[in-house]
Amino acid sequence: MTRVSVIGCGNMGGAFLKGLARSGSHHLTAIDLDPDALERVADHATETTDDTAAAKASDVVILAVKPDIAGAVLGDLDLSAEQTLVTLAAGVPRDFVAGQTEAQVVRIMPNLAAETGNMAAAATNEGLTDEVRALLDEVGEFVEIDEELMDISTAVNGSGPAFAFYLIDAMKQGGIDGGLDPEQAETLAAQTFKGAAETVLRDDRSVDDLIDAVCSPNGTTIEGMDVLWDSDADEAVVDAVAAAERRSKELAEAFEDGDE
Ligand SMILES: NC(=O)C1=CN([C@@H]2O[C@H](COP(=O)(O)OP(=O)(O)OC[C@H]3O[C@@H](n4cnc5c(N)ncnc54)[C@H](OP(=O)(O)O)[C@@H]3O)[C@@H](O)[C@H]2O)C=CC1
Ligand SMILES: O=C(O)[C@@H]1CCC=N1
């Protein structure tokens, strides 16, 4: 059993709590100033409180507040060297956090799929403990990276779910336009993305080979692929990733300038 506190139980903190609660094997303390946020995670936590000091009793503290208030919350935290602080705020440098606490600090970039055990995350080599590795393993997959790659990870796997939701919605709309009921179109589109992702993760073939496997000779898929290959759809996705990466770097610059 690991004693885990989550400070900030909104979208990301809540997803972590729900994911970690699935095993039923941890002591989970949900900390938030907003009673409604605590209410939303109450069924997934061992205890809920608005008292940040409760984090003192945990092995691992997950700081899941917005980047612009991370500094203020850290100022009120009095953690010890035996504890590990996991920071997941976009653009907030690990050193900035480590400079304000006695705890060991690891920076990660998770995503909302922690809730269902399907998170894709990156964690800095620095500060990563086996205890935190085990927690990340429980809620999905993670890679260990140098911190300089955190901005691109933020774009690919942190912001990535939003980009994937957008693409699923476009596929769903195509189904609706063809006459499918919206609910059925959503099921078919979302399950198709889920299945395709699973195939990419488990199959040794390249993405090009997998596309080939779907394209029957003189069949339907190649007609659709020709439309995609002739479009700028791939460039738009690459541009979206680059824009999110750029914003992550901008957020980090504010900390380097000492603005936060
Ligand atoms: N959303 C996502 O998909 C991802 C987010 N992140 C990172 O996670 C962090 C949180 O983002 P997100 O979950 O979207 O934000 P949310 O606004 O959904 O959640 C933040 C929560 O923290 C609460 N809070 C504010 N001040 C305090 C405080 N002093 N003590 C305790 N709780 C407080 C907020 O309450 P109130 O609303 O009343 O202010 C809110 O409930 C960010 O740093 C973001 O970069 C990382 C990866 C993915
Ligand atoms: O949009 C954001 O800033 C956060 C970080 C990654 C996902 N959500």
Automatic annotation (TrEMBL):
EC id: 1.5.1.2
Entry's Gene Ontology BP terms: L-proline biosynthetic process
Gene giving rise to this polypeptide: proC
Pathway annotation: Amino-acid biosynthesis; L-proline biosynthesis; L-proline from L-glutamate 5-semialdehyde: step 1/1
Name of the protein in question: Pyrroline-5-carboxylate reductase
Keywords assigned by UniProt, alphabetized: Amino-acid biosynthesis, Cytoplasm, NADP, Oxidoreductase, Proline biosynthesis
Native source organism of the sequence: Natronomonas salsuginis
Cellular localisation: Cytoplasm
Similarity comment: Belongs to the pyrroline-5-carboxylate reductase family.
Residue ranges of every copy of the Pyrroline-5-carboxylate reductase catalytic N-terminal domain listed in the record: 3-91
GO cellular component annotations of the record: cytoplasm
Domain Pyrroline-5-carboxylate reductase dimerisation span(s) in chain numbering: 147-251
Function: Catalyzes the reduction of 1-pyrroline-5-carboxylate (PCA) to L-proline.
Molecular function terms, GO-annotated: pyrroline-5-carboxylate reductase activity
Gene3D superfamilies (alphabetical): NAD(P)-binding Rossmann-like Domain, ProC C-terminal domain-like
Keyword Oxidoreductase carried by entry: yes
